[in-house]
Write a structure and sequence with these properties.
mainly alpha; 2 domains; two-stranded antiparallel sheet
């Protein structure tokens, strides 16, 4: 068993000390191992994220007051930058350039590039933070609709929270630069675990800081905003020792004229727009949601974060594990290897996310009820959040596929194609939302976003297939329909078990809810594995054999 960042027997190691796989099996195995490490760390982070949401929902609810709506709107700006940097343009532009520098010129040159990028980010984000704090009120008013501002004190509270959280931009920018360097060195576990510190800090502040806020003249929800800021600092603190152990030392050097820095900025400019479709769509949803009843912003926010759990576990982990390999393969002009790696990534994503999509649709209400319904989060919040989750769920496949394909274009130094496709998808999302919100209310916003994400992924896949002279589409389509059939059987079994237990074991106690949901999910997994075996889905069989062999060894 290799250590994180190490090599296994039989791998070829290049001049920079980086493992270089040579066969389809090694690509597939290495990708699975790296994605597994990332998924494990991400699972810990996402579970803590759910705990954070439970705590915040219990304290502040969704429709019982303005606090949660105000926080969600205020956090939209720093959260946008976090998503773009952590899982978007920064990674897509920085990792390929850093990887090429590391492979061609060694670690000293790579460390210098890392320092240049960190200091550039510190300068740019500090300017943005100061600008945002000064103009927080008009920015907040532009994001929120007139109906939102009409609630007494709601806009003022949102502006105050925005000012508190804006420095999060700087901390997360530095954290992502550290993450990119560690990923380029095939160190995946620590960077993927670092977002857990954001959740830990928020949970700590919910219990330790929120009660103190009235004593200093601030609203209780400001304690959660402070937790957000501390969480960004904690992500930097967690990653720096691992990078220092690799030999990195921070130096206050800055040069926008450096060719590698200019290359990163060149890719990041259009790359930010190219990967921003999801977040721009969320902005559109936020504005339109503020025109709906109180609680709509929070219902969509809670549902989106639940839906984002499998994206983080499966889509992002596979994309992060794939990107350094793809960057090296592009650098070697090995398009056959690029095609193989992308295809394996997409098929692995489908294997995990199609069942997750069906599961979220079928068990939306009991999952939301189990996780959130307590304290100030009431039954109306449960039904509304579950409805939003059902409509968001089909977008799982689109979001995850984009996270694999967009960085591939940037690795090939093509930022133009994702930009054009993203602009088109934003237009599709806006048009759909304006229509669907009139028909389905806030639920239509979730559905419009999901459809737009699938559109974005579909067009990118078509364009990437043309660039790579094919993308093993027959194998991808075959796997998709087999997985869809297995997942449909799984969904039917899960719902049948839950409905039966709801009749046999009724009650609203947490333990009873947990029994019903756990039994439904356990049944779903067993049925999925059996159906996948009948349909001869190789990846499911390999995963089952791997788990059984490990259990046997233990």
């Amino acid at each position: 068993m290799p250590s994180e960042g190490g090599t296994t027997d039989g791998e070829v190691v290049n001049a920079a000390g980086l493992p270089q796989s040579t066969s389809s099996a090694s690509v597939k195995g290495g990708l699975a191992r790296s994605a597994g490490l990332i998924s494990l760390a991400t699972l810990a982070s996402r579970v803590l994220g759910v705990v954070r949401e439970i705590v915040v929902a219990a304290l502040f609810g969704a429709s019982t007051g303005p606090a949660m709506d105000a926080f969600n709107v205020a956090f939209r700006i720093p959260n946008l930058v976090r998503d773009l940097f952590a899982e978007g343009a920064m990674t897509a532009a920085f990792v390929p350039t850093f990887t090429r520098t590391l492979a061609a010129r060694g670690r000293e040159a790579a460390w210098r590039l890392g320092n240049l990028v960190i200091n550039a980010l510190l300068l740019v984000t500090t300017v943005l933070v100061v600008f945002g704090i000064i103009f927080a009120e008009p920015i907040t008013r532009a994001i929120a609709g007139a109906e939102f501002a009409a609630v007494p004190g709601k806009l003022e509270l949102t502006t105050e929270l925005t000012r508190i959280m804006l420095p999060f931009l700087t901390t997360v920018a530095v954290a992502v630069a550290l993450m990119g360097m560690l990923n380029s060195l095939n160190r995946f576990f620590i960077p993927s675990l670092s977002p857990a510190m954001f959740n830990v800090a928020t949970i700590f502040c919910a219990f330790a800081v929120v009660p103190l806020m009235p004593l200093v003249g601030l609203p209780p929800i400001a304690g959660i905003a402070i937790g957000t800021l501390l969480g960004g600092v904690a992500q930097v603190v967690m990653q720096y020792p691992a990078l220092r152990k690799e030999g990195f030392r921070y130096k206050p050097v800055l040069s926008f004229a450096d060719p590698d820095v200019r290359e990163i900025l060149r890719l990041m400019g259009p790359g930010t727009l190219g990967l921003a479709a999801v977040q721009i769509n969320v902005f559109v949803n936020t504005y339109l949601a503020t025109t709906q009843e109180q609680g709509a912003v929070s219902w969509l926010g809670f549902a989106f974060r639940l839906m984002y759990l499998p994206i983080g576990l499966f889509g992002v982990s596979i994309a992060v594990a794939s990107l350094p390999n793809i960057s090296r393969q592009v650098g070697a002009s090995d398009l056959t290897a690029v095609r193989r790696t992308v295809s394996q990534g997409i098929r692995m994503m489908l294997m995990l996310n199609v069942p997750a999509t069906i599961g979220l649709v079928v068990l939306a209400r009991p999952i939301v009820e189990l996780i959130y319904e307590r304290g100030a989060f009431v039954a109306q919040d449960t039904s509304s959040t579950a409805a939003a989750l059902m409509y968001y769920s089909p977008g799982l496949l689109g979001y995850s596929a984009v996270k694999i394909m967009s960085p591939t274009f940037y690795s090939m130094r093509d930022a133009r194609t994702p930009v054009i496709v993203s602009v088109l998808s934003v237009g599709v999302n806006l048009g759909l939302n304006l229509i669907l919100v009139q028909v389905l209310g806030f639920r239509g916003l979730a559905l419009g976003t999901a459809i737009a994400s699938v559109f974005n992924a579909g067009v990118l896949m078509f364009m990437l297939s043309r660039r790579l002279d094919g993308l093993e589409m027959r194998a991808i389509a075959s796997d998709f329909f087999k997985i869809l059939a297995a997942s449909a059987i799984m969904g039917g079994a899960a719902w049948a078990v839950f409905a039966a237990l709801e009749t046999w074991v009724p009650g609203a106690a947490f333990t009873l809810r947990l029994i019903r949901v756990s039994a439904a999910i356990g049944t779903a997994i067993v049925v999925l594995l059996l159906a996948a075996r009948l349909l001869r889905l190789e990846d499911f069989d390999n995963a089952r054999r791997r788990v059984l062999s490990r259990l046997a060894r233990r």
